[in-house]
């Protein structure tokens, strides 16, 4: 197996790695770093927790130490928390260089960001929306000398999910030099491979780990089959059991909406669990503060939406619970990848209701693994069922009395405005679409009823015909 020196890193960088316990390159590092150091574009696809960040940070620092000038490297990433994490890796590994990095993400002060950008940092780590805003609104910085463009979680940046980055990416690409190295990394590149290849140029080097499965071997993947109405009781019982048995374990619970995230947090607090939440309706400072408290194990349980599904590297996380079964295998892979990182063990437990069984089958097919049942003592769950459901209802009522829904509406409107859309027109369009859809549904129903009636009529007619024939015979 190669060591970092033989891959082309200078002694100072090898020493920096050692200080962080990074002694031997992982497969993605061993394979991608030489190509990057040779100046090639690179697409790297490796499992969660396999060291993809260092696979691009180390070669960038190596090149920067040889030729430092201007804004040297731009890293784009889908979430704000991830931007801070990546910037920290640059800061720690690049300390001997006196590296100046700057983080450009939404929810933080734009003026101080503009000042930092105009001071020509070596590395900019950004979420696309906020960086595009800076490009649109000021000309106090230049990215024309960029040597490296890195898209971390590249497939997420290109897909048109609930946050669509494509327009912002266009703005950003517009100010970057054509001559640059482009590096794209993710644990799930394959769906968007062709698009990604077109962003990278010069025959990119492509490396994908050859493993059979798409999740790590150290991860024990489980499921619990539960009726929808008993799901929360199963979750409370599960957390109680896990925290009783392992008081040093940290747990992340993923759920599908901000509102659910809020309600579950309130509900688990009723049961005195040390819970904290992370979702996109929280103020950014609160998001960072909560994540920091979870990382420092001040709170052992984090309830989050998919804003925390990708990239976050928190070694103490031993368990991931999916409160809802993810609708896409890709989301499942990233969520459960928050545990069992860098060779450690971990457990994932997915709560599966009667409506989600087909989703589990698709997940199993795509990840090429079989989820095993997690044994639960049903009697114990039934004992707490009424108490849990009552607590949930009370929390729902409490939340309804706050301005949470109103804030959500305002947030939606803000998002639409940022996308250049008129919220009122959009609402009208949505209502019209809904009307058309319901008309279509009614029309379809009518036709079906008619066909059904005709069929019945024919069935009744047929024996009559036979009778008639008989009669004439
Ligand atoms: N060569 C190495 N030896 C040991 N640990 C390493 C090595 N390289 C990176 N690590 C550590 O492994 C952990 C996971 O790395 P990283 O966050 O880069 O994973 P990733 O592949 O980007 O995962 P994800 O797909 O979830 O974003 C980090 O704590 C990092 O410090």
From TrEMBL:
Helicase C-terminal domain segment(s): 218-382
- Its main subcellular localisation, reduced to a broad class, is nucleus
Where in the cell is the protein located?
Nucleus, Nucleolus
Query: According to the UniProt entry, which residue ranges have a biased composition of type Basic residues?
Result: 458-473
| UniProt keywords, alphabetically | ATP-binding, Helicase, Hydrolase, Nucleotide-binding, Nucleus, RNA-binding
Q: Which InterPro entries match?
A: DEAD/DEAH_box_helicase_dom, DEAD_box_RNA_helicase, Helicase_ATP-bd, Helicase_C-like, P-loop_NTPase, RNA-helicase_DEAD-box_CS, RNA_helicase_DEAD_Q_motif
**Signal listed as a keyword:** no
Q: Does the keyword Nucleotide-binding apply?
A: yes
Gene Ontology CC annotation, any one: cytosol
Q: Where is this region: Disordered?
A: 444-473
Which GO MF terms are attached to this record? ATP binding; hydrolase activity; RNA binding; RNA helicase activity
Please give the catalytic activity noted in the UniProt record.
ATP + H2O = ADP + phosphate + H(+)
Every Helicase ATP-binding domain range: 33-207
Query: What does the record give as EC number?
Result: 3.6.4.13
User: What is the similarity comment for this entry?
Assistant: Belongs to the DEAD box helicase family. DDX49/DBP8 subfamily.
Q: What is this protein called?
A: Probable ATP-dependent RNA helicase DDX49
Organism per entry: Echeneis naucrates
């Amino acid at each position: 197996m190669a060591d970092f020196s033989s891959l082309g890193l200078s002694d100072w960088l090898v020493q920096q790695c050692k200080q962080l316990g990074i002694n031997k390159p992982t497969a993605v590092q061993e394979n991608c770093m030489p190509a990057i150091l040779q100046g090639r574009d690179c697409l790297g696809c490796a499992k969660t927790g396999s060291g993809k960040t260092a696979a691009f940070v180390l070669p960038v620092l190596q090149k920067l130490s040889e030729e430092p000038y201007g804004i040297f490297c731009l890293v784009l990433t889908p979430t704000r928390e991830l931007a801070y994490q990546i910037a920290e890796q640059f800061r720690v590994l690049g300390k001997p260089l006196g590296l100046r990095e700057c983080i450009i993400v939404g929810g933080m002060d734009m003026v101080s960001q503009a000042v930092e950008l105009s001071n020509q940092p070596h590395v900019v780590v950004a979420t696309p929306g906020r960086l595009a805003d800076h490009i649109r609104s000021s000309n106090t910085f230049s990215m024309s000398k960029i040597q490296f463009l890195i898209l971390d979680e590249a497939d997420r940046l290109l897909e048109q999910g609930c946050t669509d980055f494509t327009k912002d990416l266009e703005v950003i690409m517009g100010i970057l030099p054509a001559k640059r190295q482009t590096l794209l990394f993710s644990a799930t590149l394959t769906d968007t491979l062709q698009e990604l290849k077109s962003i990278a140029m010069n025959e990119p080097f492509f490396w994908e780990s050859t493993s059979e499965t798409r999740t790590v071997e150290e991860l024990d993947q489980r499921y619990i089959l539960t009726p929808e109405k008993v799901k929360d009781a199963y979750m409370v019982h599960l957390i109680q059991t896990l925290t009783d048995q392992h008081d040093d374990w940290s747990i992340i619970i993923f759920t599908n909406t901000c509102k659910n995230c809020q309600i579950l947090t309130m509900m688990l607090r009723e049961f005195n669990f040390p819970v904290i939440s992370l979702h996109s309706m929280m103020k950014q400072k609160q998001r960072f503060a909560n994540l920091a408290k979870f990382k420092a194990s001040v709170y052992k349980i984090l309830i989050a939406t998919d804003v925390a599904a990708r990239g976050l590297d928190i070694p103490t996380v031993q368990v991931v619970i999916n409160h809802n079964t993810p609708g896409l295998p890709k989301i499942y892979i990233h969520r459960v990848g928050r545990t069992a990182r860098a060779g450690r063990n971990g457990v994932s437990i997915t709560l599966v209701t009667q409506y989600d069984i087909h989703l589990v089958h698709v997940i199993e097919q795509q990840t090429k693994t079989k989820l095993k049942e997690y044994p639960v003592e049903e009697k114990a769950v039934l004992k707490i069922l009424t108490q849990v459901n009552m607590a949930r209802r009370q929390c729902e009522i409490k939340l309804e009395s706050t301005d949470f829904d109103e804030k959500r509406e305002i947030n939606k409107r803000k998002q639409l405005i940022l996308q250049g859309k008129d919220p009122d027109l959009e609402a009208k369009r949505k209502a019209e679409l809904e009307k058309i859809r319901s008309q279509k549904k009614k029309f379809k129903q009518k036709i079906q009823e008619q066909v059904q009636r005709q069929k019945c009529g024919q069935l009744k007619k047929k024996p009559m015909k036979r009778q008639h024939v008989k009669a004439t015979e």
